[in-house]
Amino acid sequence: MLRFASLLAAVAAALAVAGPASAAQLLARNAADVSIKVDRESRAVVYYRIGSQQKAAAVWGAINALPPSQSRRQVEFKVDYSGGFKVLGTPLAKKIVDVCGRYRGPRLPWFVAGCSAPDGSHWALQSFQRLLPNLGVAPWLPGQRARELWISHWKGELPELEAYAGWFGSRKFHQVFGRLMYQGVPVHGFRATSTGVPLDTHGRLVYLDVFDSALGKGWKRENSFLARQPTGHYCYGFFQRPRYAWYPAGPPSPPANAARYRLTAGGPGVTPFVARVIEGLPDFDPNVPEHVGLHDETMRTRRALITSDPGCFNQG
């Protein structure tokens, strides 16, 4: 069993500060009146407004995702913010013949608009506050409040985000853990900064929001962290943390174990964001048989998902 100091060090290595990782593809910030049209060549035009300015972006050239690879980039869209005139050489936004019907795909988090094409593929636009400060700290810069507009295009199954709550560290502390998969293959990158920001096109972050915790009532952004090699797994333990040096001065953040947890993950390639909401746990009581049974069950699950990462508390 690792001592508490060692556990702290292990968790610190797992943390990530929200950075330029992606899913789908970022189109705009704080967009309103969003709609989409798609032609028979799988060229989309996204119409939106920022303030009083009407915009139209042509988007094409990508679907689904590739498996993790160190030798090739992940798939990504081509985007023409002139509506097709500058890159495609045609004012697609004005003359597009829309063949994309009512959205018939699976339910998505943060969904604002979408459609389903004759080829069976789906297009979706999601608006997500990815850049909220961690540790429940209130935004102090305008960009941290931004609702980012992301576009995705896929056919078939969605990425799968598994999420579980458990205890660790002699069952004194709470944690969430799970993994991110796509078409049966783990989702992960190969290079990241020391704070967990992906440095390649395959890396993805999982964003953790907590509901009714020591951070306050309602949903608060607690942190973000990598889906990690080799199984696409993640883990996050709850205990007191000091504020980051670049944050406004303030007291340490208390353990944010909560009534509920919401985990949002960027799918690989141009697949959508997916999310899971799970219930939190009470503090562990060894005299409650249900707690003992649940701990044994979550330990079995964790060991099955996380096979080679001591920082994720496989020791229990």
SSE topology sketch:
Blueprint: H1 4-14, E1 15-16, E2 25-29, E3 32-38, E4 44-50, E5 53-60, E6 78-80, H2 92-95, E7 111-116, E8 122-128, E9 148-154, E10 160-168, E11 173-182, E12 185-186, E13 205-213, E14 216-226, E15 233-238, E16 260-266, E17 273-279, H3 289-305
Antiparallel strand pairs: 1-14, 2-9, 3-4, 4-5, 5-6, 7-8, 8-9, 10-11, 11-12, 11-15, 13-14, 13-16, 16-17
Rg, nearest Å = 21 Å
What is the topology, as strand order, of the major beta sheet?
1-14-13-16-17
Order of helices and strands: HEEEEEEHEEEEEEEEEEEH
Quaternary assembly: single chain
Rounded mean pLDDT score: 91
**Classification by helices and strands:** mainly beta
Largest β-sheet summary:
5 strands, antiparallel
Q: Helix count, per DSSP?
A: 3
Give me the CATH fold name of the largest domain: Immunoglobulin-like
Uncertain spans, ≥5 residues at pLDDT below 50?
1-21
The portion of residues forming beta strands comes to: 35-45%
Top CATH class of the largest domain:
Mainly Beta
Helical content (DSSP H or I, runs of 4+)? 10-25%
Distance between the termini: 8 Å
Say how many strands there are. 17
Describe the global form: globular
Name of the CATH architecture of the largest domain:
Sandwich
Domains counted in the coordinates: how many?
2
